[in-house]
Amino acid sequence: MTAAPHTPRPTTPHTVQETHVTGATVWLTGLPSAGKTTIAHELARTLRARGRAVEVLDGDEIREFLSAGLGFSREDRHTNVQRIGFVAELLARNGVLALVPVIAPFADSRDAVRKRHQTAGTPYLEVHVATPVEVCSVRDVKGLYAKQAAGELTGLTGVDDPYEEPESPDLRLESQHQTVPESAAAVLALLRERGVL
Ligand SMILES: Nc1ncnc2c1ncn2[C@@H]1O[C@H](COP(=O)(O)OS(=O)(=O)O)[C@@H](OP(=O)(O)O)[C@H]1O
Ligand SMILES: Nc1ncnc2c1ncn2[C@@H]1O[C@H](COP(=O)(O)OP(=O)(O)O)[C@@H](O)[C@H]1O
């Protein structure tokens, strides 16, 4: 008896699951006590609950490690912002939502960070937390405005050091007229609109 000719079994195509997750950097710029950190953490909670990878690059933490030794001169603030922009872009290009609550008072520093992202094709959103200095100085979460008024601190952003307001941010938040969840929801809506969520 001759063996039946071998008929190859139909092959199932090798399926590769493509789950491309879009990362992005969301830079929250604004004065001390504007609400940058609070909004970033509220956003992080919501996004993590949806299963997204999120990192908050907090200004104070960064200054303790990555930017240890830097002060608040124009040059040092620029260096600080560029370092943070570099790390944020690395995270974002790998699918992370990098939330950056950092003052970044100078337009040219912010523009350089935006350009770095554009060059790499990584989404970048600038959110201006535009709380007026009068409100920030009453909030005074870290007591910096009081220190400045008492003559114990100089070079405070928005008081005796410049803050160059973003001319065309992707979003402008007036936190003095919003609850924290409302401010965070506005950023989420922007992320959805830009196809990041
Ligand atoms: N002179 C002066 N001006 C502004 N801010 C000051 C200053 N001294 C200390 N701090 C506190 O430093 C926190 C981190 O600053 P940043 O790294 O975000 O600033 S910058 O972008 O490099 O300008 C910043 O944090 P936030 O309050 O969360 O904005 C300030 O609380
Ligand atoms: N809509 C809002 N968004 C963010 N913070 C708000 C808002 N309304 C009131 N706040 C309060 O303002 C303060 C902002 O502090 P923080 O987030 O540390 O500011 P920053 O990081 O800009 O220095 C917090 O005490 C927060 O509860």
Automatic annotation (TrEMBL):
<dbReference type="GO" id="GO:0004020">
    <property type="term" value="F:adenylylsulfate kinase activity"/>
</dbReference>
<dbReference type="InterPro" id="IPR002891">
    <property type="entry name" value="APS"/>
</dbReference>
<dbReference type="InterPro" id="IPR050512">
    <property type="entry name" value="Sulf_AdTrans/APS_kinase"/>
</dbReference>
<keyword id="KW-0418">Kinase</keyword>
<dbReference type="GO" id="GO:0004781">
    <property type="term" value="F:sulfate adenylyltransferase (ATP) activity"/>
</dbReference>
<protein>
    <recommendedName>
        <fullName>Adenylyl-sulfate kinase</fullName>
        <ecNumber>2.7.1.25</ecNumber>
    </recommendedName>
</protein>
<keyword id="KW-0597">Phosphoprotein</keyword>
<keyword id="KW-0808">Transferase</keyword>
<dbReference type="GO" id="GO:0070814">
    <property type="term" value="P:hydrogen sulfide biosynthetic process"/>
</dbReference>
<comment type="function">
    <text>Catalyzes the synthesis of activated sulfate.</text>
</comment>
<dbReference type="InterPro" id="IPR059117">
    <property type="entry name" value="APS_kinase_dom"/>
</dbReference>
<feature type="domain" description="APS kinase">
    <location>
        <begin position="23"/>
        <end position="173"/>
    </location>
</feature>
<dbReference type="GO" id="GO:0010134">
    <property type="term" value="P:sulfate assimilation via adenylyl sulfate reduction"/>
</dbReference>
<dbReference type="GO" id="GO:0005737">
    <property type="term" value="C:cytoplasm"/>
</dbReference>
<dbReference type="InterPro" id="IPR027417">
    <property type="entry name" value="P-loop_NTPase"/>
</dbReference>
<comment type="pathway">
    <text>Sulfur metabolism; hydrogen sulfide biosynthesis; sulfite from sulfate: step 2/3.</text>
</comment>
<dbReference type="GO" id="GO:0005524">
    <property type="term" value="F:ATP binding"/>
</dbReference>
<keyword id="KW-0547">Nucleotide-binding</keyword>
<comment type="similarity">
    <text>Belongs to the APS kinase family.</text>
</comment>
<dbReference type="GO" id="GO:0019379">
    <property type="term" value="P:sulfate assimilation, phosphoadenylyl sulfate reduction by phosphoadenylyl-sulfate reductase (thioredoxin)"/>
</dbReference>
<dbReference type="Pfam" id="PF01583">
    <property type="entry name" value="APS_kinase"/>
</dbReference>
<feature type="binding site">
    <location>
        <begin position="30"/>
        <end position="37"/>
    </location>
    <ligand>
        <name>ATP</name>
    </ligand>
</feature>
<keyword id="KW-0067">ATP-binding</keyword>
